[in-house]
């Protein structure tokens, strides 16, 4: 049996329990404040196989020579990423024609992109290391959230209009680590 180091975090905004396994092999259980720790421990036990699978996945990535990108890299590449992503957003939004407030480039650990209710789009600068088809998918995904702030059938129908192969790209992206090449 593999020993798992984990940390419980009670979060104000959490509505349910969730587990994340990070590239540094740390495990975090986030839970609403009102849930007793004993339930979180039970949840952890139930998800043990999944956790071990993720830890093994990240362990293998480290052995294959994947390098963790540094903050220095972020500073060097941020403006290059901004230019590439802005170009993609402007081009792809010609089809949708949604109102975009701001576009931000960030160094995120767990997301490729996000969209706020204020019509702000956020993108991970590490997208510059992805192939153009994946960049297009991420940009379209976030643009479509301007219209549908969920992952409903309507949302995926919007994505499919400009990225018909979104399902295969989505699978590929899930396998792509944010540690990156």
What would you say about this model in short?
The protein is of the alpha/beta class and 181 residues long.
Topology, pairings included?
Elements: E1 6-11, E2 18-21, E3 27-32, H1 37-46, H2 48-63, H3 71-96, E4 103-106, E5 113-115, E6 121-124, H4 132-145, H5 153-162, H6 166-175
Parallel strand pairs: 1-3, 4-6
Antiparallel strand pairs: 2-3, 5-6
Helix pairs in contact: 3-4, 4-5
Q: From N to C, what is the helix and strand string?
A: EEEHHHEEEHHH
Q: Beta-strand percentage?
A: 5-15%
- Sheet with most strands: strand arrangement: 1-3-2
Report the radius of gyration as a whole number of Å.
18 Å
Share of helical residues: 40-55%
How much is the average pLDDT? Answer: 86
Structural class from helices and strands? alpha/beta
Give me the CATH architecture of the largest domain, please.
2-Layer Sandwich
How many individual helices? 6
- Give me the count of strands: 6
Report on the structure:
The chain has helices spanning 37-46, 48-63, 71-96, 132-145, 153-162, 166-175; strands at residues 6-11, 18-21, 27-32, 103-106, 113-115, 121-124. By secondary structure, the protein is of the alpha/beta class. The protein folds into two domains: 6-63, no CATH class; 71-175, Metalloproteases ("zincins"), catalytic domain (Zincin-like), CATH 3.30.2010. Strand 2 (18-21) and strand 3 (27-32) form a beta hairpin. Helix 4 (132-145) packs across helix 5. The longest helix has 26 residues, at 71-96. The radius of gyration is 18 Å and the shape is globular.
